[in-house]
Model the fold of this input.
Amino acid sequence: MEYRDYYQIMGLKRDASQDEIKRAYRKLARKYHPDVSKESDAEERFKEVGEAYEVLKDPEKRAAYDHLGANYRAGQEFHPPPDWDSGFEFRGGGFTDAAGGGFSDFFEELFGRQAHGAHGFRSRFDARGQDHHAKVVVDLEDSFHGAARSISLQVPSLDAQGRMQLTSRTLNVKIPRGIREGQMIRLAGQGMPGMGQGAGGDLYLEIHFRPHPFYRAEGRDLHMQLPVTPWEAALGDTVTVPTPDGKVDLKIPPGSSSGSKLRLKGRGLPGKPAGDLYITLSVVAPPANTEPARAAYRELASQLAFNPRAGMGV
Done:
C-alpha cells in the first residue's frame, strides 16, 4: 500500500489553518471538476483532492493522520503501525462519517474500519452531549486481575485561528476483571458536554491488549507456545509452565512433537465460564557447541537412523 501525502496533494504546509484548507479545496475542485476541466487526469485528481479534503477538514482525522508522522513520502510503501490510533478521543463511534466515499486503500486502511462505530455520528445538535470514543491499550494482566489505571487521551480541536491543536486529559479508569479485547468501557457523562441543561454524552473506551511475551488472547481463551526438549516430547514428562495466575505442572504425553496442542481448562481469562489456556509444543534441540555435545549427537544418529524426510521421497 502506498502512502498518500494529503498536504502535498492540496499544495499546503502541514500547519495550514482550516481556512487555508477550505480555500485550497475550492480552488482545486474547480480546476479538476470532470464537468469543466480539460485536464486528461481530471477525474482522478478530483477524487484525490476530495479524499485529502475529507481528512484535513476534520480535526479528528487530521490529528490521527498527522500522528503517523511526516517521515513518509508520497508513493512510499506504507503499513500503519499496530495500535497507531490508540489514545485519541473522537466523536461518535470513531472517525465520524468517513466511510462510503469510494476512497483509496490508504484511506480505508486508516479510517474505514473506525467509520462504522456502534455509537454513530450524530448529524444534528440536540440537548444531550455527543458520545465520544477512544481506543486504549492495557496489559493482559489487567483483565486477569482487574485494575485501576490512569489513562491519558489526546482530544483534537481548533484554536481561535482555526488551526488544529491537541489537548490532553487524564481519566482514572477501572478495568473490570475478565474484560475481553474489543469490549467497551462506558464512562457516563465523559463525552461532549450537553447544550443548556442537557446531560453530557458518554465516553466509550475500546479495550486492546499490549503484545504479551507469552500469551495471545482470543476471546476468553489464551494461546501460548511452550518450548520443550526432544526427550521431554519423545518420552513424556511433567514440566512447569507459567500461567497468568501462577505456575502449574503440565503433563506432556509420550510421543509428542512440535505442533502438538494441550489444554489447561479454566486457565484463560476469568469469566462465567472462564476461558482455557491452549499450549502448542515447540521442540527445541540443544546446541552442538561442545565436543561432548557433538559426540552425543553422533551417537544418537547412529542408534536411531531416523530420517524425518522419508515421506518426501528423498
User: Anything to note?
Assistant: The chain has a mean pLDDT of 82. The chain has eight helices and twelve strands. The radius of gyration is 27 Å.
